[in-house]
Amino acid sequence: MSSASTSAAPSPAVRRGRVWKFGDWISGDDGIVRFSELRNFGDDHDPADLARRCFAGLVPDFASRVRPGDIVVAGRGFGIPSHPPAPMALRAAGIAAAVVESTDSAFVRRSLNAGFPVAICPGITAAVEEGGELEVDFATGRVTDIDSGAVMTTKPFSPAMLEVLDSGGLVPYLERYLAGEARA
Amino acid sequence: MSLTIAQKIIARAAGTDAVAAGDYVTVTPDYTVMQDIYFWKNIKILERLGVPEIAHPDKVVAVLDHTPQAALGSEHVARNRESREFVRRTGFSNFFDAGRAGLRHLVMVEHGFARPGLLVFSDEPNIASIGAVGALNVPISTEVLVSMVRDSNWVRVPASVRFELTGTLPRGVWIRDLVQAICREYAGGDGLVQRCVEFGGPGLARLGLDSRQGLLAGMYHAGADTAVADVDEVALDYVRERAGSRPYEVFTADEDAAYDEVRTWDLGALEPFVTVPPRHSGVVPVSEVGGRRITQATVGSCASNRIEDLRAAAEVLRDHDIAPGVTMYVTPGSPGVYAQAAREGLVELFTERGATVLSPGCTTCWGYLGALGDGDVAVSTNQENYPGRAGSRTAEIYLASPYVVAASAVTGRITDPRELLPAEGAVHVLG
């Protein structure tokens, strides 16, 4: 898949990939991963293990079929409720972004802190096809269905959010911040 | 200006005159509160980052509410010790250890941290309960770590809806039933998503602080980010007793504040509800699932672990033993609630009826104590009902009020509390 950007270094704010579609109310704690099977709440999780668990209860062969850079499109209430392993699993599986009808603010933050961007984009599930190609620009808020050319909008990330995304998550962002290298 | 209460609190914390829904603004939080597992995790991260101590320790509150029991064989024995060593080494004073703790939702109000007009960052949306005293909970999840390093962070200003309460709860009906009535309408949709629910009206004014906290603690499950209530004299009396000389400011919404929805809820029109697992939208009148056999009954969690909740359960159990085959747990939300329950004879009553009174904490709500096994059926005041929440994935968790939970414990089946409550009884609404 080639980048739509003409610049040499693609911005981490732009995510483009193949679409996986999911329905409404896929929770973080029982749909994205089964949190109850990760009893050691607070432990550092092995990314390879989380990747294997991602959506395993919904799509048993997801881990073998997902490709790096794929994008999750989901319905209402995606990720509600959640604990930290849910967005960690999405990122570990190689998914580049989630574009959802709705979610709560805590999931957006929790995901961003894990280096995983979530866009809220009402109407997205009707607008895109499973297996289609979608591009999300978190800096401008443009959501583009590459196949049809249709453009939708999401609220752009603020400079502070983009800095966390660019850093790869909250802890690497704080490393930059403490080194005096953060812009926001 | 035309601002809601949440917008005024955020504007104050941002040092600006006006904000609009959807704006990103940088705020200075008044407090940041986190539970024990995040606290331990975060002090490990601080160590890795080379940060020797919490940057603004007077504004951070850490509460041992998930793992104060430190069960044999759990990792929490060692983790809690590491947390205590950090606290000793750095002199961090707002660490609420086992015995002083209870749920952080209660610690925040009981110790006067949550006060009118304050902005509180937290690790959990249910801490919206502090909105009962006019403080705004902004749930930022893992980002509570940031508040250990610096004194500011970003917030997305929520839109608001306004719920006016009228009437008085009928006998056998609890504030949880209003939470469920709201969930029945909103939990499957987007009506409250990314919004703050603002409560007011004469019905709210007749509720005690405990019920107000339980109400606000449940709005997350209807989809809301947070919730806040009008501050009246009942709330101010409570705050004055605990705030000492610490400042606060009461905000009211502007007359022309913009709400996505304004709506009235008549408390008098409510009935006992039960939420059928595994979703919060599965709310039905208790009669629809009446007779379902249960194996566990629990009263506790940030939804229902305050003294008014325990009194409601006790009212049902006054003249009835718990059925054979049912394990009942009651978890007071804090040492203060526990002591009050003891003074009122409730601990004795629960014990005599066959219930186990657990030590303050989150306990059964996440299965740390009283875990559910395969095929168990619980009726519970706890907050979550998804498979595996409190143990086995095949266990079912029906959510309900302390009245329904206690009545079901008595019969061994999901039961309408109005069948068991004496005709005359204590009126739970405080004046």
From TrEMBL, chain A:
<keyword id="KW-0456">Lyase</keyword>
<dbReference type="GO" id="GO:0016836">
    <property type="term" value="F:hydro-lyase activity"/>
</dbReference>
<dbReference type="InterPro" id="IPR011827">
    <property type="entry name" value="LeuD_type2/HacB/DmdB"/>
</dbReference>
<dbReference type="InterPro" id="IPR015928">
    <property type="entry name" value="Aconitase/3IPM_dehydase_swvl"/>
</dbReference>
<dbReference type="InterPro" id="IPR050075">
    <property type="entry name" value="LeuD"/>
</dbReference>
<protein>
    <recommendedName>
        <fullName>Alpha-IPM isomerase</fullName>
    </recommendedName>
</protein>
Automatic annotation (TrEMBL), chain B:
<dbReference type="InterPro" id="IPR015931">
    <property type="entry name" value="Acnase/IPM_dHydase_lsu_aba_1/3"/>
</dbReference>
<keyword id="KW-0408">Iron</keyword>
<dbReference type="GO" id="GO:0016829">
    <property type="term" value="F:lyase activity"/>
</dbReference>
<dbReference type="GO" id="GO:0051536">
    <property type="term" value="F:iron-sulfur cluster binding"/>
</dbReference>
<keyword id="KW-0479">Metal-binding</keyword>
<dbReference type="GO" id="GO:0043436">
    <property type="term" value="P:oxoacid metabolic process"/>
</dbReference>
<feature type="domain" description="Aconitase/3-isopropylmalate dehydratase large subunit alpha/beta/alpha">
    <location>
        <begin position="21"/>
        <end position="412"/>
    </location>
</feature>
<dbReference type="Pfam" id="PF00330">
    <property type="entry name" value="Aconitase"/>
</dbReference>
<keyword id="KW-0456">Lyase</keyword>
<dbReference type="InterPro" id="IPR036008">
    <property type="entry name" value="Aconitase_4Fe-4S_dom"/>
</dbReference>
<dbReference type="InterPro" id="IPR001030">
    <property type="entry name" value="Acoase/IPM_deHydtase_lsu_aba"/>
</dbReference>
<dbReference type="GO" id="GO:0046872">
    <property type="term" value="F:metal ion binding"/>
</dbReference>
<keyword id="KW-0411">Iron-sulfur</keyword>
<protein>
    <recommendedName>
        <fullName>Aconitase/3-isopropylmalate dehydratase large subunit alpha/beta/alpha domain-containing protein</fullName>
    </recommendedName>
</protein>
<dbReference type="InterPro" id="IPR050067">
    <property type="entry name" value="IPM_dehydratase_rel_enz"/>
</dbReference>
